[in-house]
Amino acid sequence: MGGLEPMSEERKTVIVGQSKPLLNYVTACITMFNGGAHRVVLRARGEAINMSVEVAQVLKKRFMSNVQISNITIDGENVTSRDGRQLNLPVLEIELSIPQ
Amino acid sequence: MGGLEPMSEERKTVIVGQSKPLLNYVTACITMFNGGAHRVVLRARGEAINMSVEVAQVLKKRFMSNVQISNITIDGENVTSRDGRQLNLPVLEIELSIPQ
Q: Each residue of B13-34: pLDDT tens digit?
């Protein structure tokens, strides 16, 4: 995705985890859009996936109604857990964009 | 979506919850595809969303490699909780299809 584009300017990624409150991720997105990003990708793995969907919803409904969900992809990621097992974690990426 | 199509034949929905094991939802999808469905939609709310992503991944990787993720949508749903509060739950729908 976005192979030839100037990634650093155009497309930013917010990694959504479970340790921080929802609004931290929402404000991270707002900061990036206000800083000139045209597209922001919310990326979450495993149990954080539902929070990433909620972040997108809250951002759109309560803060930035002009933001559109331009793409959603599902993927898997191989991770080695602490006890040495191989896990295949689901990954969700939600691309948010502001129409120019 | 699918306004004029014969919904009962073509497009089936699996509601993903949290009470049942993952493989129950995987086998539900397999049964529907084997029964002639061309498209199966996985629908999940709130905390079940991550499981729906995992169901899609497991189905594709371990059981039906010909299944494609044809569409993913995010939505919100207003729900009244047991103590009377209004909640806006995030909803994720993953449309799976077999190319004809």
A: 999 998 999 999 999 999 999 9
